[in-house]
Amino acid sequence: MTRLTSSCRTLRMQVVWPGVLGGAAIGAVLSVLAAFLGEVRAPESLLLLLIVSGGLAGGFALSRRILYLGAGILSLLLSLCLLTPVLRGPLDALTLSQPVQKADAIVVLGGGVQCGTRALEGSSQTRLLAGLELWRAGYAPVVTVSEQSDVFSATCPKMSVIERKIIRGLYPQNGPQVVTLSNVTTTTDEAARVRDLAKARNWQRILLVTSPSHSRRAAGIFASQGVNVISVPAPETRFDSTLPLPSDRLSALRTVLYEWLSRIKERMGGTPER
After folding, report:
1. pTM for the whole thing?
2. Which conformational region is residue 224 in: left (phi greater than 0), alpha (psi within -120 to 50 degrees), or beta?
């Protein structure tokens, strides 16, 4: 009897452990996808949670089947996005590009800063340069830059400080008039600051510069604040928007998911991060 009980336990362990390990492996893959595609700001804790949750789900027959089914469906969807340019349509739907006109100010939305290297993220740099090109072409005399709040990190350098330094380096004399949008966390904050400036300075028209995928949502946020904007997206430098390569498609998927999640969060009463 003892030998039979021991054999049953051994058999159960032989059945359970492969499921636990398989579930943990799926959890690890999901955590990597969440960290990359979702732009998660604290991936270490999420990584551990998904690995543990996957391992626990893999230890039971029903939850293991559900986990494997979900992973299979997700794999098919990812394969479709990576092997075909199916995301071109969603990307186009996120973009709003309007003919440039003379305006009172050029609003360059913040895109982020690298805390460790104390440098602008690529999107911030591209937006700033696109805004300065509009200024050089004579479309508006004023350029705004954004100073991020300390919500995400109090130790990061301020985007506005770095951007002002770049502008001074490019134009030591006779540069644009630069105005800082102080203590902003979201695009809604930036829109509110510009709304107040427009009232105080009698700005009638604004050129809004941001990343293409952010442009339609940003223009809508500014319009909801009563700001008259013309959307002039900066060039997309994170990936080739024609999506010729799987690497471009993966980066595009990250962008599309971020924008969709931001819209869902906003409709649920939260505020989008940028």
Report:
1. 0.80
2. alpha
